[in-house]
Amino acid sequence: MTGRSSFLIVANRLPVDRTVEPDGTASWRRSPGGLVTAIAPVMQRRDGAWLGWSGAPDEDFKPFDQDGMNLIPIPLSSQEVELYYEGFSNATLWPLYHDVVAPPVFERRMWECYREVNERFAQAAADAAEQGAVVWVQDYQLQLVPAMLRELRPDLRIGFFLHIPFPPDELFWRLPWRKELVEGLLGADLVGFQRPGGAANFMRLCRRLLGLSYKGSEVYSEDRVIKAQAFPISVDFGELDSLVREPAIVARAKEIRAELGDPEHVLLGVDRLDYTKGIGQRLEAFGELLDEGRLSPGEAVFVQIATPSRERVDEYRRLRDDIELQVGRINGEHSTLGLQPIQYFHQSYGRRELAALYLAADVMVVTPLRDGMNLVAKEYVSCHHDLRGSLVLSEFAGAADELRASWLVNPYDVEGLKRTMLTAMRATPHDIARRMRTMRRRVSTYDVDRWASEFLTALESPA
Ligand code: ADQ
Q1: What is the CATH number of domain 237-445?
Q2: Residue 19: CB partners within 8 Å, gap ≥ 6?
């Protein structure tokens, strides 16, 4: 790559994964995911560059081009992966921002490392940006970057988007480094959140912590105006909608149902294996419905896909054991030869197989205890042009603001969850279609393209 860019994405990870073949040859493959899909066209149009870690510790790669994007790898040592990524990002900030559903770890050396790594990202962005460039920083791993970057390059237009919830101020208050983090974010011209509630929490905190005033969506610092607003992220509706119309995907969906023994109801959960996702709660509800004889084993099958995630963090290892024990118990009690009521997969899937699974499922069960948005809920809706399929959705997912026509549940209320799952299974086709139509109208209008363009328009319009 030569020269500097007028548009930069700064994210913890690059949008590519490195794969090494058995014979030792290595290559880069574009990682699946909405963010890349949304941002790739903007990058191509604007001669953009993407800064992020390659995913391989202790490796220093040179900048390279892939799919018309300039990629600038930022190196991380194994110790930095442990302290900055697994530590401060995923053992401190992640649980704290998700309503403390697991206890956050507060360790000074993790914080120190977080600050150092943020500095490295800011310096790399400062070096890569041309005069007056637009820089869009992504997510909780890089909250100090906006202020560090502004210090180095006051000429830039800096945006920040937080993909996870921003917590109420009484929770945020626990952070020993609360002031530094808020000041870090305030280095941006625009701070984007998933929900209006996140933006409101942030603005209240600016007043309480720093004595700043705010009005509407503007926070006033000594010499600048910072905008704080909600931009609910979405999915590539068009891509999924056409994928599930392909005969091969339709056939695969039928095949999946047949492999499951053609039960009356196929229930589905698709999540990263994370304690915020409420996987245990939904399995408990399903297990009790079987215990009580309100569902018979052949009547419904629950397919739970749990993508491996953050496996070196203690809390995640414990969660995996807990879930697998729970699945084993329920299946142990209710299986018959050849028929298991819960089909559990600790695996990653390609887009096509995932789309076929969504299409095959009668009831999608999305029950996070707290979630910034939850793309799975929107992906499910995008895959049901047939207007079949019921979405059971937690009130604590950001997606609940937009998908009011789903069956909303409180995942902490096991009885309510059981009732709602049964209601969703037994609803009339007319009711199911009416709800699905309403949800599809929303997701098709507010797709991921719209999310990115609304954010960038707000960032580039003068305050
Ligand atoms: P996540 O916590 O990862 O994202 P989510 O929004 O549901 O949660 O996105 C998960 C993505 O991974 C989906 O696109 C899904 O299809 C994919 N996926 C899940 N399991 C898979 C599997 N087994 N195989 C392949 N793909 C799989 C964070 C926040 C969310 C927010 C997003 C985007 O926690 O609240 O919605 O970022 O901002």
Answers
A1: 3.40.50.2000
A2: 26, 27, 28, 29
Q: Is the pTM of this model over 0.90?
A: yes
> 141-194, pLDDT tens digit by residue?
999 999 999 999 999 999 999 999 999 999 999 999 999 999 999 999 999 999
Quick count: other Cβ atoms within 10 Å of Cβ 272?
16
In the chain, where are the structural domains located? 5-233+449-460, 237-445
Task: Find the helix packing angle between 108-128 and 145-152, rounded to 10°.
Answer: 40
Q: What is the CATH number of domain 5-233+449-460?
A: 3.40.50.2000
Alpha-carbon span 365 to 372, nearest angstrom: 17
Distance of CA 25 to the CA centre of its chain: 31
98 lines ligand 1 (CB under 6 A): no
Residue 22, φ and ψ in degrees, nearest 5: -55, -30
Beta bridge pairs of residue 220: 213, 225
Pairing of strands 225-230, 342-345: unpaired
**Could you read off the pLDDT of 247-291 as tens digits, one per residue?**
999 999 999 999 999 999 999 999 999 999 999 999 999 999 999
Q: How far apart are the CA of 63 and the centre of ligand 1, in A? A: 27
Tens of pLDDT, residue by residue over 365-412, are 999 999 999 999 999 999 999 999 999 999 999 999 999 999 999 999
From the CA of 164, how far away is ligand 1's center (Å)?
Answer: 11
Q: Is 372 in the pocket of ligand 1 (CB under 6 A)?
A: yes
